[in-house]
Design goal:
This protein has helices at residues 3-6, 11-52, 57-63, 67-159, 165-256, 260-271, 328-365, 376-404, 406-424, 428-433; strands spanning 447-450, 469-474, 481-485, 491-495, 499-501. It is mainly alpha-helical. It is elongated. The model is unreliable at 291-316, 406-410 and 418-443 (pLDDT under 50).
């Protein structure tokens, strides 16, 4: 069944039906747009929520040593990744559904307008032909009536005995002329009728069916494309479901990692003072005579013991640099942490110094690349920084020796030096070799591996494949996207949750 055959006389109905179809496409586009706005707002609110409750500051970092605190932080990170997937859904819907359907709808409107214009023009041509037919028909009727009157008048004149021969001839001539004109009109009418019937047949059996069938094809294409849009509404979200499930699994895993016993152990290790409990108070026998009161006769509680419920609002003195204001165990931990931190800084300064020496060697071998003397101030500054940091290490190790005491301290310091020295000391042999080789990797970027394939359809994004090794050029700044470099030199943004950073 087709419109041209079965709906040949329903032009107005076809017009309204096709317009209703276009209106439906516009409604769906508006619906998807509002859905994308909801997704974007939802993702924005999720990011704000995770940022609001994220840990900030040194005190919060210290709390993250407890599994229940760290689990909440992991949940917030997973929630931030989940928000990124909602944003990806919104972007995909806008690109793959709204933008494509808007262009498709514009094409349909133009085609529909052209087909309806052709149908209207064909109808106007048929109506014009019918008017010409009516005009020739009326002229034929008029002329035939006049011819009959003229013939009757000629017969009347011929039968009139008073009429002269001239009058009779004149009447016959007039009747003949009218009859001839009527015959011509009759022939014109017959020809116009034949022409109109031919045009009418072409209009109803060829022209209009073709136009209506084109409109039918247009409407069916609209329906098929709209059906694809309906499916995309679901399929686009299904594509990110594995990642969303992974985020939710991460939240569950974070909750499962909470260990109450371990948190108690961490809390004890973090706050135990190391002092011995107070000894028993001696009995003072006043029956042997009252002794003179002295400052030592009072109950001596440990000086380190603080009030259980401090309510004083007095200004506390600033903490000592050697952490002597802390209990022994806490002081040792703080000093050891400080030494480790300074060692890390020293290691970074030594790496910087090594890189500068390499660059200087390259400049000396290739003066066109740069002036080696411009690096001297920076090298001198780095050497000065390393000297200062070594002094800091010695200072904190001395304090640690006091806190630990005796041979125990010597062993701890020797172990510490043995742990850090291989990674921090730069040998002279290494300095000799830096002038013969050029290493262009002065700024090392971290690596990451793509967990999923990603199609970068929007501006600024790139496509990556599952398992591809990438270089991180710009880390995630809280918006769920990071800039990476592919092996082929292509650079752009991808979702942060699609990759795993290399350790």
């Amino acid at each position: 069944m087709d419109w041209g055959t079965d709906l040949w006389d329903q032009g107005d109905v076809i017009d309204k039906h096709t317009q209703a179809g276009l209106d439906l496409v516009e409604r769906y586009i508006k619906f998807v747009k509002e859905r994308t706005e909801l997704e974007q707002n939802y993702a924005k609110q999720l990011r704000s929520l995770s940022k609001k409750y994220a840990k900030k500051g040194s005190k919060d970092d210290q709390d993250c040593r407890f599994s229940n605190h760290a689990a909440l932080q992991e949940i917030l990170n997973e929630l931030n990744d989940y928000a990124g997937q909602r944003e990806l859904i919104a972007e995909s819907m806008m690109t793959n559904i709204c933008v494509d359907l808007i262009k498709f709808l514009q094409d349909l409107k133009q085609d529909r307008k052209a087909h309806l214009s052709d149908a209207k023009r064909a109808q106007q041509n048929l109506e014009s032909s019918f008017k010409q037919l009516e005009s020739t028909k009326r002229r034929f009727a008029k002329e035939w009536t006049e011819a009959e009157k003229a013939t009757q008048q000629a017969e009347k004149t011929e039968n009139d005995t008073n009429a002269t021969k001239i009058d009779v001839d004149k009447a016959k001539q007039h009747a003949h002329t009218r009859t001839h004109t009527a015959e011509e009109c009759r022939n014109d009418y017959a020809a116009q009728l034949q022409k109109y019937n031919k045009e009418q047949n072409y209009y109803y059996y060829t022209e209009i069916p073709q136009i209506f069938n084109k409109l039918q094809d247009l409407d069916e294409r609209r329906i098929r494309r709209l059906a694809d849009g309906y499916c995309q509404f679901s399929d686009l979200e299904k594509k990110v479901q594995p990642i969303i499930s992974k985020c939710l699994d991460g939240i569950s895993a974070a909750g499962a990692k909470v260990d109450a016993k371990q948190d108690s152990v961490v809390f004890v290790e973090q706050h135990k003072s190391g002092f011995e409990r107070p000894s028993d108070v001696d009995f003072e026998d006043y029956t042997q005579g009252i002794k003179a009161a002295s400052s030592d006769s009072s109950l001596n509680l440990p000086k380190f013991r603080s009030k259980l419920w401090p309510i004083s609002r007095k200004h506390k003195p600033p903490p000592a640099e050697d952490f002597s204001h802390l209990p022994p165990e806490q002081r040792k931990k703080k000093l050891q942490a400080k030494i480790d931190d300074v060692f890390k800084k020293l290691h970074m300064e030594q790496e910087t110094s090594e890189a500068l020496e390499k660059m200087k060697g390259v400049y000396e071998q290739n003066p066109n690349l740069g002036d080696p003397s411009t690096l001297e101030p920076k090298i001198a500054e780095t050497v000065q920084n390393m000297g200062y940091l070594r002094g800091e290490i010695a200072k904190y190790e001395t304090w640690l020796s006091e806190a630990v005491g005796g041979d125990e301290c010597a062993n701890a310091i020797n172990n510490n030096n043995h742990h850090h020295t291989p990674n921090t000391v730069v040998t002279s042999e290494k300095h000799q070799n830096i002038y013969t080789e050029f290493d262009d990797e002065f700024d090392e970027f971290s690596q990451c591996t793509a967990l999923y394939s990603f199609e970068g359809n929007s501006e600024g994004t790139i496509s990556v494949t599952d398992g591809e090794l990438l270089t991180v050029m710009e880390e995630d700044k809280g918006d769920g996207w990071m800039r990476v470099l592919r092996a082929n030199g292509e650079e752009g943004f991808i979702p942060s949750s699609y990759v795993k950073l290399s350790s």
